[in-house]
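User: Structure please.
Assistant: Input sequence and predicted structure:
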Amino acid sequence: MDKKRYRAAVEAILFACAEPISAQQIAQAVGADVFEIQQTLVNLKAEYSRQGRGICLLQLEDRWQMAARTEYLSMIQTVMATKKNTPLSPAALEVLAIIAYNQPVSRAFVEQVRGVDSSSTIQKLIQKGLVEEAGRLDLPGRPLSFRTTDVFLRTFGLSGLEELPPLHEHKGEIQAPSAPEQVSLFEEELPSEEFI
């Protein structure tokens, strides 16, 4: 691999990693000499600074991390706040209700109740802090389970799950259907996954 390809590989790794990473880890990943990777990192840092880019390269002792420049922090916070405060879609509310009333539950349970793949909706609820992983269930395959968080309680003005409104005339759990098309939490069936 030539120097141009090393540089591109280093940039790709730094961009993809959310955590600081050492030059040694990068060198192992691209099959290069550690010294050569360190030199590439130093050159990238200088290049980003010289060109006045919106990103910079931070050196944290022996680790490196790509980051946004601090002068753009307020703009980034504005965008992140807007994204975080986006209203929940009907699909997200449906998944949230299933988890809230039946927690801890597996993704398979949620999908059986809804009759549609719900993995992306669950991940978006996790990103918003409304849902979190709750360990593994004692079922075949030991699937991950999910539960609501304190953020969920605060968002919906609840002090505890016992304050959730009853589903129908009496409080109770949503039962898994014998066939997916037999259950819907809302009047209308959602034909496909909707985005948050």
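The chain has a mean pLDDT of 80.
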